[in-house]
Predict the 3D structure of the following.
Amino acid sequence: MTTAQERDLPYDVFSKACPSRGTLEHVTGRWGALTLGALHEGPFRFNELRRRVDGVSEKMLSQTLHALERDGLVHREAQPMNPPRVDYELTPLGHEVAERLLALIRSLEGHMDEVLAARHRYDGKRDG
């Protein structure tokens, strides 16, 4: 449910009252970005996704998936089986956002030698 203030507000992520800021945080946080990137590969069950996003705790993955589902980026499908089966996949909006994140991720991975060299220079100046 949106408030009257949210409906009248032009979307400006730099404004602290803008609802887009929360979604940006969900998408660009460590676990949100990695979860969206992993789901871009296709649907996953919870434990498969947890193994793919190495290092995420069960609690953090659950919270991340809830936030991304609430924002309309992830679809959760529970199938009535014994034991229950729950699959997670990206929505069309989630695919669009994940593609943009993956472009950033690939750019960073492609420039890591430069990043590591910059870190080395920076740390050398601070230590010396």
Remarks:
- The chain has a mean pLDDT of 92.
- Strands lie at 44-45, 74-79, 85-90.
- The longest strand covers residues 74-79.
